[in-house]
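Possible regression after last week's pipeline update?

I re-ran a chain I had predicted before the update to compare outputs. Posting the input and the new output here so someone can diff against the archived version. Not blocking, just want to make sure nothing changed silently.
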Amino acid sequence: MAKRRVTLEDVARRAGVSKVTVSNILNNRPTAVPISEATRQRVLAVVQELGYYPNAVARALARQRTDTIAIVLQFPAIFQGWSGFTNELMHGVADKAIELGYDILMHTRQQPDARAEALALMDGRVDGALLLRDYDDPLSGMLAERNFPHVLFFTRSPRNDVSWVDCDNLAGARLAVEHLIRLGHRRIAHLAGPMSACSGRDRLQGYRQTMEAYGLEVHPEWVLPAPFGGADLTPFAQLLQSPQRPTAVFAWSDEVAVRVLNLAKELGLTVPDDLAVVGFDSTQICEHTDPPLTSVRQPIYQMAADALEILVDLITEKRTQPITRVYAPGLDIRGSCGASQAGERYV
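New output (post-update):
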């Protein structure tokens, strides 16, 4: 037979005090009548003697708070890959969670539909959620209709009752393409992200707008899908072997850009002499590629930390109205474009 769990009442009875007194001592809670040091030490001795530990579930029910936040990505498998982007994101969230006294739950169990996902998030285990979902994903709307605290990060919402933080991806794409044009490139390809994601869609739009603004033709065959790091780049490899191949490429993410560096080497092309490459995110991997990767910088760490702080304000009702923030990108110039001013930053 399993041993019965020691309760707060057991401690109070053995120490000869009330349950409230035990609770006040364990939580270091101030009281109208100060608790004597002798009583405090007696209660703590009984706690150690009986092996009592608080029931977190019961405490959460009493407080109506768990001090736990869920992180929900579009595809839970992203946690397994642990890219430079994911690493920076989790670093920012974790540091801010530690600062504010919150635990993090990585939501990895996929539900059959958005309704089931919403119900799973609202089952009492977490106080709120950070969501990185597709632009038209219905989960955020369902949570908003039920007044469940959540913040979208690295994406946006069409609703005016949802908080979100995102980078100005249009401006970031413009920085990348303008840099390549300044270096003399006219045949610039784009490896595009998923069109269901704000980032992929906006970076493609920024590429198109910048090319057109400079009077450069956007060849349809030079815009190829590469929605994740492991995407099939065979069509791009074929393009690089064509007579009128592009001399530069703007990849929607660092992961894809690193694949391009490796692909170019396999094809006997030299970066940046034969092909200039620009990525997006400017994560730590950019300093360790050969050559180092020029990349658009978005403040991933700060955006993730700010998103969590906004969420905590919503949970604690310090903030009652939704908030949206757009962060300015920059460009970290390294060796993959052949720029003489490698190491310079555009902001």
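Follow-up from reviewer: compared with the archived run. The chain has a mean pLDDT of 89. Marking as no regression found.
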